[in-house]
Known about the structure:
The structure holds 2 protein chains of 2 kinds. Chain A is an all-beta fold. Chain A is 0% helix and 52% strand. In chain A, strands 2, 4, 5, 6, 9, 10 and 11 form a 7-stranded mixed β-sheet that branches. Chain A has a 4-stranded antiparallel β-sheet with strand order 1-3-8-7, with no helix packed on it. Chain B is mostly beta strands. In chain B, 0% of the residues lie in helices and 53% in strands. Chain B has strands at 3-5, 10-14, 19-21, 24-26, 32-39, 46-52, 59-61, 64-69, 74-79, 88-96, 105-106, 110-115. The termini of chain B are far apart.
Amino acid sequence: DAEITQSPRHKITETGRQVTLACHQTWNHNNMFWYRQDLGHGLRLIHYSYGVQDTNKGEVSDGYSVSRSNTEDLPLTLESAASSQTSVYFCASSGQGDQPQHFGDGTRLSIL
Amino acid sequence: AQKVTQAQTEISVVEKEDVTLDCVYETRDTTYYLFWYKQPPSGELVFLIRRNSFDEQNEISGRYSWNFQKSTSSFNFTITASQVVDSAVYFCALSARDTGRRALTFGSGTRLQVQP
């Protein structure tokens, strides 16, 4: 069965470190998204991609970057981790048009 | 800018009660999609329904039903005869087609607790 996988599931790191969260999907979807979930805010869009070599900034993109070198992967990088980036991160993908997004199980990131 | 408001932060009901979760949205676009997702205590996000802006028919799926009213920009979700397994956080979300964005704008969620 097709799936979307995030790794790691949990990570603890220190402020100032570079962190990369992986997202891999086997749906062959063109559209991929990164969201962060914080209490009281629901999920907020960080970055998204509509295809290989395409990346776009979302609502809360400061301090984050993504790259899309193939269809399956959209890694999210925190260049210099800050405590305000402690959150649960969800990756999602969707097919053509406005098909529902499939979500990964999330990565819980703590920055001390 | 588009926005989704879920004014109910938390709702607590007793099993078998009916409960309605409210969702109000804002968008300037004429073509858009509305979604509901469920997040159980285990943390994953489960897709429940998608509705496009041109289809105002209400939908029923088992104990779940959705009422879409463009006149009031609302897309409310009703659970009939609630069960303990319905305890979760429910998110309403919006994507606007006209602006080319397939990304979702989420509401802040409503935590539903169903007591036995």
